[in-house]
Amino acid sequence: PSAIAVLTSGGDSPGMNPAIRGVVRAALHRGIKVFGINKGYSGLIIGDLEEMNSASVTNIVQRGGTILKSDRCEAFKDPAVRHQAAEVLKEKGIDTLVVIGGDGSLTGAHYLTLENDIRVIGLPGTIDNDIYGTDDTIGFDTAVNTALEAIDKIRDTALSHESLFLVEVMGRNSGFIATHVGIACGAEMIVIPEYEVKVDAISSQLASNREQGKGSSGIIVVAEGPKPGLTYDLAKQLKNHGQQPKVCILGHIQRGGIPSGHDRILASCLGASAVDYLCAGYNDIMIGVRRGKIVDTPLAQVIEKSKELDEALFQRALLLHK
Amino acid sequence: PSAIAVLTSGGDSPGMNPAIRGVVRAALHRGIKVFGINKGYSGLIIGDLEEMNSASVTNIVQRGGTILKSDRCEAFKDPAVRHQAAEVLKEKGIDTLVVIGGDGSLTGAHYLTLENDIRVIGLPGTIDNDIYGTDDTIGFDTAVNTALEAIDKIRDTALSHESLFLVEVMGRNSGFIATHVGIACGAEMIVIPEYEVKVDAISSQLASNREQGKGSSGIIVVAEGPKPGLTYDLAKQLKNHGQQPKVCILGHIQRGGIPSGHDRILASCLGASAVDYLCAGYNDIMIGVRRGKIVDTPLAQVIEKSKELDEALFQRALLLHK
Amino acid sequence: PSAIAVLTSGGDSPGMNPAIRGVVRAALHRGIKVFGINKGYSGLIIGDLEEMNSASVTNIVQRGGTILKSDRCEAFKDPAVRHQAAEVLKEKGIDTLVVIGGDGSLTGAHYLTLENDIRVIGLPGTIDNDIYGTDDTIGFDTAVNTALEAIDKIRDTALSHESLFLVEVMGRNSGFIATHVGIACGAEMIVIPEYEVKVDAISSQLASNREQGKGSSGIIVVAEGPKPGLTYDLAKQLKNHGQQPKVCILGHIQRGGIPSGHDRILASCLGASAVDYLCAGYNDIMIGVRRGKIVDTPLAQVIEKSKELDEALFQRALLLHK
Amino acid sequence: PSAIAVLTSGGDSPGMNPAIRGVVRAALHRGIKVFGINKGYSGLIIGDLEEMNSASVTNIVQRGGTILKSDRCEAFKDPAVRHQAAEVLKEKGIDTLVVIGGDGSLTGAHYLTLENDIRVIGLPGTIDNDIYGTDDTIGFDTAVNTALEAIDKIRDTALSHESLFLVEVMGRNSGFIATHVGIACGAEMIVIPEYEVKVDAISSQLASNREQGKGSSGIIVVAEGPKPGLTYDLAKQLKNHGQQPKVCILGHIQRGGIPSGHDRILASCLGASAVDYLCAGYNDIMIGVRRGKIVDTPLAQVIEKSKELDEALFQRALLLHK
After folding, report:
1. Which of A48, B216, D245, D305 has a 20 to 30 A CA-CA distance from C19?
2. Is residue A311 part of a domain?
3. How many whole angstroms separate alpha carbon B306 and alpha carbon A86?
């Protein structure tokens, strides 16, 4: 590539900073100029970018959020706007864009390269882990740990009061966070979009716990699901079954925070690999990790297909709570 | 005292365990028998208690919640029930009760001793720090730190997206947590029950920040206030003023968690001091800390009077955000 | 199996508790009796074990250390002692043993089943990640995160004082922790047993950093290596090259602590899988994870072969610091 | 004051950043120009300073270390050098200096104002809490919490292996950190410079623990003391008494890290108060906190007198471990 630009887009996720650093340092190592774009596609459109050097990414590996800032850019759905963005890049002598973000952000990258003479590589940056073509996304591990820290605290109160908590974690369309958090916190039940859960099943699980001498307290982890209010609905249903659940919505605390070691390493390697793939001539792909190996997947597939939750893991979680 | 019983009551707070340990170890040190009551006043009424020794409180100093469990006991508002509780204690040869809890719990203790031949000492165990007669309560410092950890994460997202967050912290009647958290997180504004805040003031603070080159992001810390929904109301008003705030309710994560060093030391000292005061013949008091010294206050005063927020601190917080 | 016994052995690692829970709950789910042995092989020899039920492992998933306690048992190297251990198990009607531990512990398990009519399954429980047959060990992820938290703090001081720190992490024979920690903390250099590092190379890296405007501070991560004092030796050599390094030995803080989400899930799955393999008739194997899948490896191989560090990851780490 | 300069000096401590922010924002609020000096007295001498505005201190309240960097400056002990520093300040139109640091740093400030026409105010910034004239120093609370987090992890290993650990915390001349950490972690013994401890006493405490069913594990917290190696000496003595202690030196991890809520509030208030005192005409004082109130103490006293450890707290700690 003549020069690479990098941006972060969509919801921020912990590890975006080491990913940026990976791209920048690997590019410089090969003697390629690299530019940072501020505020995602919104900044790209208006040419808000500047050249980065090795010192630009010093001491960011451990910072949450993204030093390049991020944005959800509706305008980028318009081909004319994407064309404008391509012109901005060409004017600066940049022929390549690395996009770190989730599904929507990678869709924008795909159409940018389809319609314009700009090469793109995507990196999966989202806490939700709901991206086809990679077993893991930048930020997922940290988000799971953040949710766990919160639930460990709630567990103290649940045990002290022998009470039942519904804890809502992020995940609109998928139960990745909920399943991992649920198995790791020893949740009494996990409620996710992929599987129907009967309120009866929850009640009988709680009754069985009491009988086995495990006390009356409980944590039920609930994925937020496609429409708001799901967790409050479930609370109502449980009240009708004689339970007295309290609701906690973990919300935005799951996005930020110091990235975990796992996410720093994943992000560093994906960022550096993006440059390797670019230099090997690849285009219109996402770099991810599958079965422990770095792999590429065409962005067209990433966008079309949806990743399946590992049902065996979910079933294992339910078994272990018994 | 012939023998001491100890219970935790009301919402759990981090540090209740080292407080229990302080009472138990100090009592044993003086050769006094000590009993632990399960589940607060509810457990006391039904005689759910057992003798504790030094090993009973080993390795609990760092645990959140309360090993004795806690409860909110409506029945204890009835003098007949309190009489029954006193009989339970006397039957076991116990003439003294140490109650660790908040306002309601200390009220129960006061009436118990007024009406019955049982001596009581209260310890302020609540995250809210809203108890007259003490500058500090067991759990307040930890709750402030827990809220801060959450807000530091939200700050990452706020900065990355240049967005505005309303973060609701605990505090029904008082702004202690909100004020301390607000000053410590560098909040752009603090909203507490004690002072009226105009939405205009928030808007102009945010505008002033932008003008000074401090960016468009912001954190507003809001005490939950007397009725639920306050934070959502404020969000609506801000929307009408052209802001786009997101709401985070920190909720129950503020209660649990590993107690901070400060709370472990405070709780240990108050627990041990309770025994000192008992041996010196005191009754119907709460042990607290004022201006760095351990002091006692009659429970009657603790219940009647309300603690004032330090207005100077609040004003200082507002000044420092400018 | 007629009944399963489980023990933890060698240095404790975070995640041993969820591993125990996985074994216990999965065994009970299949109607198999399960016993917990106290203090590793030492406890086994003297018959210090008791039956566990579902409540025995309640609320342990988030606890560091091991509720079964652990030990390094020299006596177990003696075949006569192993025979005695087998007799203890048979007497209780137990025909199967699950051992959670590192290399030495798994060696003991292998010889126990070779010489006696006891079936064994091993689980890799060590922070060092130096076990053949698995990409990951129970406790490694947590240890990396713990070391990172410490180094993030040291980084604050290094930056504030523009000083150089040598931070020693665990790893006698292998650089797994050092390499992962090094890449994740943005170390200026990583020193591990597998690769020789020249003091000149460190000095020139630090000089290059200064020239690029990255400041004079630095963190060098050093694996402890086969003999104590390595890090102090390196410090002396650096002093001779005009550097003024300070030494930090992280030591035992890397062993304990609340297990990370990753380790809780890994341990839970390996624990439950051990029971699956036992029920499928396997013996004399270790259950691990390779390329994201749960796999078994004969204990004979686990003991004989040594796991290689991923050199590509190490080289990537060095590149990213430039 | 015409204009204020602020610097941080000596070992960094968590909370120096909110202290700087307090000084800067409070000065600007009163319309006073404020300058930040880089690298302590070393930077002052060479005129390495620049004007700060409100945005200069945005988003630093939660950062460890000091954005102004710090240094130990031997040269500043020379009156000629101090004179030169005064000239630098006057040239820039600055008549006032705020120094955030420990004993040595405050000594420099005192002589600077004695000999030159520069006003100075000191703020106690050190993790050691060993400064006369204040009950608390900026960074002490965080350092105690950091040490506790480490020891809580070591406790997991100690309990799992029933082993004895000597944990060395900072404190050359004073046992403040050791005493607070010791009481808060439930240490079996605390060894500090102020009180002689007999090895016999440790052994009998450990024996007593075993007898009471509290197990064989133990944590002994040791202040580093005036000369290095104290903790290793103690380990040797304990070995001669039949114990098998392991040694952990917590070291530099105690300095850095995200400041606690307590330290952020303390630092913010002291920083802002420094400006209040300056505007009220004070000079040659340190601002501290005593019995919960902000107070000033002449620097001459701060330097001459030494702060006494609260013996009652130390004795209480010992009692509670029994």
Report:
1. D245
2. no
3. 64
Which domain covers residue B96, as residue numbers?
3-139+259-304
- What are the two backbone dihedrals, phi and then psi, of residue B279, each rounded to the nearest 5 degrees? -70, -25
Mutate to test the interface with B, among A68, A164, A253 (most CBs of B within 10 A): A253
Burial of residue B249 (CB within 10 Å: 0-12, 13-18, 19+) is buried
Contact across the interface for D53 and B212, Cβ inside 8 Å: yes
Tell whether D200 is within 8 A of chain C (Cβ).
Answer: no
CATH code where residue A9 lies: 3.40.50.450
Identify whether residues A263 and A251 lie together within a single domain: no
Structure tokens at B52: 């504790």
- CA separation for the pair B110, B297 (Å, rounded): 12
Do C53 and C106 fall into the same domain? yes
B156 is catalytic: no
| Amino acid code (one letter) for C182 | G
pLDDT digits (tens), chain D, 322 positions = 889 999 999 999 999 999 999 999 999 999 999 999 999 999 999 999 999 999 999 999 999 999 999 999 999 999 999 999 999 999 999 999 999 999 999 999 999 999 999 999 999 999 999 999 999 999 999 999 999 999 999 999 999 999 999 999 999 888 999 999 999 999 999 999 988 888 888 888 888 888 988 888 999 999 998 888 899 999 999 999 989 999 999 999 999 999 999 999 999 999 999 999 999 999 999 999 999 999 999 999 999 999 999 888 888 888 888 8
Nearest 5°: phi and psi at C33? -70, 145
SS3 A214: coil
Q: Please state the ipTM of this predicted complex.
A: 0.96
List subunits contacting chain D, requiring 3 or more Cβ pairs under 8 Å.
Answer: B, C
Rounded distance, CA B126 to CA A149, Å?
A: 21
A154 → closest Cβ in B71, B153, B256? B256
User: For the domain that residue C157 is a member of, what is the CATH number?
Assistant: 3.40.50.460
| DSSP class of C131 | -
Indicate whether B313 belongs to any domain: no
DSSP strand E in A1-47: where? 3-8, 33-37
Question: Both tokens of residue C225?
Answer: 């290596």
Q: For A158, name the nearest residue in chain B, comparing CA atoms only.
A: B65
CB C254, CB C127: distance < 8 Å: yes
A92, with CB counted inside 10 A (0-12, 13-18, 19+), is middle
